[in-house]
Amino acid sequence: xxxxxxxxxxxxxxxxxxxxxxxxxxxxxxxxxxxxxxxxxxxxxxxxxxxxxxxxxxxxxxxxxxxxxxxxxxxxxxxxxxxxxxxxxxxxxxxxxxxxxxxxxxxxxxxxxxxxxxxxxxxxxxxxxxxxxxxxxxxxxxxxxxxxxxxxxxxxxxxxxxxxxxxxxxxxxxxxxxxxxxxxxxxxxxxxxxxxxxxxxxxxxxxxxxxxxxxxxxxxxxxxxxxxxxxxxxxxxxxxxxxxxxxxxxxxxxxxxxxxxxxxxxxxxxxxxxxxxxxxxxxxxxxxxxxxxxxxxxxxxxxxxxxxxxxxxxxxxxxx
Length: 320
Hints:
Blueprint: E1 3-7, E2 62-70, H1 81-90, E3 92-100, H2 104-114, E4 120-121, H3 149-157, H4 161-165, E5 177-179, E6 189-193, H5 195-200, H6 209-223, H7 237-240, E7 258-261, E8 266-269, H8 274-288, H9 301-309, E9 315-319
Parallel strand pairs: 2-3, 2-4
Antiparallel strand pairs: 1-4, 1-5, 6-9, 7-8
């Protein structure tokens, strides 16, 4: 599950203004000396009796501050119909701070450090929130799940999702991000190939890593160049591809480099898994045999695009 939301005052839209009060005294203990985790919610513009199947509509116009990660491939357009739909159907508008992708990490870090976090950061991967949890700036969204009926329904009814959500919890037992949820496995990244050239050489679409290697060998021998390149320095392919080798991912999926081995009942280093070694070996052999351009692991997007447009490269990683 990909963490899409770093929650600050996200629950403004769903249940309140983010004010919380510990009902058990300054030390958090109740009358019996036990920890009291109840959170008092002060509602603001919330719907009464909001439940599964209802469309949220703010009682009064609600404006949320949001930081938007602006990608060059599809720059922000405030005339997008999404914003019109949000206002007309939900009575919600966004006060948008647009941050270029190239400045994203630095800008978020500076914003957090200055204590100027807005209501909502709309694009943050699970794990990236960890450095900011101790500051107390982030809303522990796990305290508010009961006010989110649609999420609660999916956690209850979709097999395995609730268990995966537990992986988001920090040392304090709470989690601070909301993931995108899919009932079934969704691969947003994979491989793309130049179908025209494949057809010219009578190559079928590869269905396995071995078949990919065979296809690349034909293309190398016929065209004289390394036929495969990568977007994003391999961060995507070596992330999603790792699962088929029986390993945790590299690149974007490496995170803190630790995975839980269910069979052994212990945590292990990702890079020590046999499947991880098999994956590294496979791709290193592709580069050694002139099938994968070694510069694919360091080149920028413009170089990748140039290789594909010129058909010097015919296979690449990509997303939907």
